[in-house]
Write a structure and sequence with these properties.
This protein is α/β, with parallel strands linked by helices and about 300 residues long. It has helices at about 20-30, 55-60, 80-95, 105-115, 125-150, 150-155, 160-175, 205-220, 220-230, 245-250, 255-280, 295-300; strands spanning about 10-15, 35, 65, 100, 195-200, 285-290. It folds into two domains: about 10-115 and about 185-205 and about 275-309, 3-Layer(aba) Sandwich (Rossmann fold); about 125-180, Histone, subunit A. The longest helix is centred in the middle third of the chain and has 26 residues, at about 125-150.
Length: about 300
């Protein structure tokens, strides 16, 4: 998308564990700019290991916005992200001609690139009812309810994220409409051009990397991180892959090995849903994440956008 602006937003999207962070950091360094995260969990300070939050070394000296920006007790919506990310972009564009966006939360990327409509509030009673049903009946019930009542949302890739599914289901039951219908029908004008690159790998390789990442998280202390958050396990922000499974283990529901295997399986499921979402965006140009010429190709995609940084 090109609106004639001298400013360019380069989006690096793709499934979890495909290698987005390293690519975005190298691209930002080559372009001489900064990165806006589009990850709905890395923004929370207390969630580091389980969200594969990049370390200072992995950030490579490139400034990142939205990472470690909020306490886990603060709920955020896609509308909040749109407002925040537009502010981050304005700040970056005050100093640079390009900005890089990196993340796998498709709804956040859409909010930044296209905008969201104002949404009606959900009925507090319905919201409490959905919360209570999830607490009593668990993830399988929640997934099936969302699939049956809001199939549009079910395809977003957020089906391993109870917080977002609870919100979607409560919204559907409150308004009779999918929460995704409140994406603005006419996309909002943005004061920058948008280029979208998607990173992909063969499924077998991606799943191998997911399994390796989960094993590494456990070695790096994920269980200790989750144990430290156990008293907050009721928070919607913590009802997500890598945390829910270990909360169950800490409550005596199964062995640790079983919990780790569930994390791997749920992460693979999430990656599939992410790809389903991103494949529907015809503006994304796809690249092999292992292509040795990848950065050069992304620089070419960006054109001469970075020459004035």
């Amino acid at each position: 998308m090109n609106n004639g602006s001298s400013h360019t937003l380069v989006v690096i999207a793709g499934p979890t564990a495909v290698g987005k962070t390293a690519v975005a950091v190298e691209l930002a360094r080559r372009l001489g700019t900064e990165i806006i995260s589009a990850d709905s969990r890395q923004c929370y300070r207390e969630m580091s290991i389980g969200t594969a939050k990049p370390s200072k070394e992995e950030m490579g000296g490139v400034k990142h916005y939205f990472i470690d920006a909020f306490p886990v007790t603060e709920p955020l919506t896609a509308a909040d992200y749109e407002r925040l990310a537009m502010g981050y972009a304005e700040e970056i564009f005050s100093r640079h001609d390009t900005a890089v966006v990196c993340g796998g939360t498709g709804l956040y990327i859409r909010a930044l690139c296209e905008g969201l409509d104002e949404m009606p509030a959900t009925d507090p009673g319905i919201n409490a009812e959905v919360q209570a049903s999830f607490a009593a009946l668990g993830m399988a019930w929640l997934q099936e309810a969302v699939r049956a009542e809001d199939p549009l949302f079910y395809e977003t890739g957020e089906t391993e994220n109870p917080a977002r599914m609870i919100r979607a289901l409560a919204f559907r039951r409150s308004t009779g409409r999918s929460i995704l219908e409140f994406r603005t029908a006419q996309r909002k004008e943005r004061p920058f051009r948008i280029l979208k690159a998607g990173l992909e790998l063969p499924s077998k390789e991606l799943y191998r990397r997911i399994d390796q990442r989960v094993d590494r998280m456990m070695q790096d202390g994920l269980l200790a991180e989750v144990t430290g958050l156990f008293h907050l396990r009721h928070l919607k922000n913590l009802q997500t892959v890598g945390y829910s499974e270990l909360f169950d283990y800490l409550e005596g529901k199964g062995r640790i090995g079983h919990a780790v295997e569930k994390i791997k399986q749920h992460t693979r499921n999430y990656a599939k849903r992410q790809m389903t979402w991103f494949r529907k965006d015809k503006e994304i140009q796809w690249f092999d994440a292992d292509d040795p010429q990848l950065i050069d190709k992304l620089m070419s995609l960006s054109g001469d956008a970075g020459t004035r940084n």
